[in-house]
Amino acid sequence: MDTPAAGGPHGRAAVFDVDGSLVDTNHLHVVTWWEAFRQAGHRVSTHAIHRAIGLASGDLVAHLLGGERAREEADAVSAAHKALYGQYLERLAPMPHAGRLLRRLAGDGWKVVLATSAGGHELSALRRAIDADDAIAGTASADDVSEGKPAAEPVERALELVGVAAEHAVFVGDTVWDMRAGRNAGVRCVGLLCGGIPRADLEDAGADSVFDDPAHLLASLTRDPAG
């Protein structure tokens, strides 16, 4: 992983997306969104839904339905998705070596922060799956921001929590929305393929480097924390 400079008095931050990056949830979200749309009378392809994963719930509905229908139905469709997805919360599985990666970075002096669209019970379930709370310095959740990715706010809020400037930070995510959010926030971006988005799409959206999953990223780290 290419890293920023050592970072001065406030150190360096590694900001992580969670769904699809640290926890294997993207396809669960696809299926439950598909069913939520179906229950509302909409036929939306799983491919289109997959490409929209990473957007906040209201933005995802607007992206896929568009126009007035989205404004009228966003709350109901989002509530249906939340209920359907909720059945999986106690069974979520981490990506390979996700917790080990966070602990390695924290041990090397990075401030590890999460930036996620999840909140409440869902966020708690995700953190249980990662099982690395000792390495996480803070979390910017859906409850903490007014705009979700690809807006810069989730990443900027994460950096505010640990007092690190954008030039000394890296954002790791698995969707084009993550890469755009990182670029909008002025940080370097690392893409992960484990969420199912092609390498070329992540690079086009701003990824400086791309790895298969957290295990691959962990294996790429050098012993020198400066990179």
Automatic annotation (TrEMBL):
It comes from the Bacteria. Keywords: Hydrolase. It holds the Pfam family Hydrolase. Gene3D superfamilies: HAD superfamily/HAD-like (3.40.50.1000), Putative phosphatase, domain 2 (1.10.150.240). InterPro entries: HAD-like_hydrolase_sf, HAD-like_sf, HAD-SF_hydro_IA, HAD_sf, PGP-like_dom2. One of its GO terms (molecular function) is hydrolase activity. This is HAD family hydrolase.
